[in-house]
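User: What would this chain look like folded?
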Amino acid sequence: MSEMGQLDRPPARAEGDSARDPLVEAINVHKSFHRHHVLKGIDLVVHPGEVVCLLGPSGSGKTTFLRCINMLENLDGGRIFVDGELMGLEETAPGRLRHLGDQQKAAQRREIGMVFQRFNLFPHKTALENIIEAPMQVKRVSKAQAVAEAEQLLDQVGLADKPHHYPSQLSGGQQQRVAIARALAMKPKLMLFDEPTSALDPELVGEVLRVMRELAEQGTTMIVVTHEIAFARDVADRVVFMDDGVVVEEGPAREVINNPRQERTRQFLQRVLEEGPAAS
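Assistant: Here's the prediction, encoded as structure tokens.
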């Protein structure tokens, strides 16, 4: 476990303001791969119940930032707090930090659900078995309880009739909805979505976005990397536009998408909207 620098603590908040305490707070986040500086000081605050969409061109650092929140990548600088807990790091001496071990990270990761571009389902397990695996193995939930909750989740994502289907028997959209149900089975505080529709045929995109809209309506805290501009405009509370590892523009979703302040944001949105129906 490598040592890191001084501890950046979240700014103090007024007493009695706990209702608006951030669920996620990223402070000056840096990440490099070899000599490639991917994240160059990202700051982000997400409050409970908010939906925040990250927009930007490929290579802008959106996915890397999401992976840093979920501790799939170690930070090179800065700090990320989820529900007030420093993620992936521990203080070894006043102001000195080191990276947590894999087991400690896994314990923190229980509170975060992540849905990837590729569905990452176990091919040898049915939809139901994919969903009950983590609650039973990680949270030691009884099989009866795990199955009952999985059946409810399958119903929630519109797959109540598919519990015994294997991934190979499901469409891409159905597999992604199983993946969403699997993440929800751990009852996470935070849901991360990394371009969840990018691997789908265009006609299957809508069924996944409908599930995500419903989650937003239920008050699920979500950070979504997406090129689905209409979804971001209609569902997100805020949009963050990233380019070349920095935040170029951030604000209320409709305001940023309909009237971007920065020329780089305008160029990106115009190009994406011109590319086809998947963006609109």
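The first strand starts at residue 3 and ends at 4. If you want, I can go into more detail on any region.
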